[in-house]
Amino acid sequence: MCEDQDQELSRLEKEWKNRFDRYTSPQPTTENTFQLLARIKETDEMKPADLRAELETVQAAEPSSSKLANLFLSQWNFYGVRSWLLTGIVMLLLTVMINVSAQNEMTGLLAWMKWISLVMIAVMGYAFRSKNKGNDIIEQLSYYSLIHQMFVRFILIMVLQVVITLPLTIVILGKESSVLSIVGSVMPVFFFGVTGFISAMWLGPKRGVMLTLFVWFSQMLLDEGYKAASMFQLPGDEHFLWMNAGILGLSCLLLSTLLYKNGAKRDFG
Amino acid sequence: MQDEDYMSQLSNGHDSALDTLVFRYHRLLYGYAYRLLQDEKLAEDIVQETFLKIYQQGKKGYVPEKFKPWMYKIATNSCKDYWKKASTKREHCTDRDVEEEGQIHHIIDRQLERRWMIDSLNQLSFEHRSVLYLRFYQDLKYAEIALTLDIPINTVKGRIARGLKYLEGILREDEPKGVGANV
């Protein structure tokens, strides 16, 4: 604004000053001011200063069982029931296809173990998929630490996979089903679940899936070329017990690295 | 002591600093909110909301560089929020104003002039009205108005000049039916 305009503005303001004074507004009394002060302090006391802190205080006061239940529920909701239904449908279709095409129960079981463990890797890849902004916010806002949430998600996947696997194994094996054959079919699923989870925790979701897929393909090659070293063993095989014990031991060892990663923060308190 | 010093005290946990700020600005802020909203109850609410925000921000440790423009900014934004929420209510207020106009015949000249001025000011846009109120009733400097409304100083000056010219035009247009017409 140039000097002339500034002078014009000053002139206008002087001219108008008195006319504006005519427009007065009601004025609060001193008593009104005291009442206002009381209301401000009262309202401030009523409002929690930090809603998150307030929520955390409430959650901290809950019993451990309730905290644990809420943690599982939150991850169940995170993963979504539809995803579980889809996994179940894929596993059922796979079972039916193998059941129809297999020459006998044992070759069917072997094929079933291989493909179900691949499904397991896909499920792990989905459950620990790269975070989008929304997931990131949910994880940040959550009362539970990320490692707790991931572990609970892993437990949910494992339990549901095993629950789905058991009846499907019986469908494949029919009269040939036994405790050993069921254990033998569940063990690779468990191993690939653990490998998927632990590698995702250490290397991130994408590299975790890549590594698990690499292990799976190497096992497929071993199964073709050097059967003794393959983890896909049938109950009648020579190395069945040793291999399953080895898989279990290796899975436990991998899981124990999580304790190392998590340090001493293992309790939910 | 400066307003900003009281905010510092508030951030250091001295709640009594709020009392001084409230006593210093209650009337001024109420006048501003009342002129913008034309409703005593609403103005009270806006003033309470503004001081509550000042109190909460102060307790969190926030100390504004310039208190007055910051305070008016909070109040202005609260008024804008109110208008956004209650655009339909404004129509109701206009109807009431029209009803009240019928009673103007019975009030004395000075009140009539005041009413006329209010009506004319209310015909201005919010942009022009807010700068005029901040300048003439709240005695804010151009730089302070610029900070309050987040606009450059030259825009403030331009709005004041244009606002006054528009107001003059409205008053001149209404003159035949204005004070003289109603007496």
TrEMBL record, chain A:
The chain crosses the membrane at residues 84-103, 109-129, 150-173, 179-203, 241-260. Keywords: Membrane, Transmembrane, Transmembrane helix. It comes from the Bacteria. This is Uncharacterized protein.
UniProtKB/TrEMBL annotation, chain B:
It holds the Pfam family Sigma70_r2. The keyword Ribonucleoprotein does not apply. Residues 22-87 form the RNA polymerase sigma-70 region domain. It comes from the Bacteria. The keyword Protease does not apply. CDD domains: Sigma70_r4. InterPro entries: RNA_pol_sigma-70-like, RNA_pol_sigma-70_dom, RNA_pol_sigma70_r2, RNA_pol_sigma70_r4_t2, RNA_pol_sigma_r2, RNA_pol_sigma_r3/r4-like, WH-like_DNA-bd_sf. Keywords: DNA-binding, Sigma factor, Transcription, Transcription regulation. Residues 115-167 form the RNA polymerase sigma factor 70 region 4 type domain. Belongs to the sigma-70 factor family. ECF subfamily. PANTHER family: RNA POLYMERASE ECF-TYPE SIGMA FACTO, RNA POLYMERASE SIGMA FACTOR HI_1459-RELATED. This is RNA polymerase sigma factor. It comes from Paenibacillus spongiae.
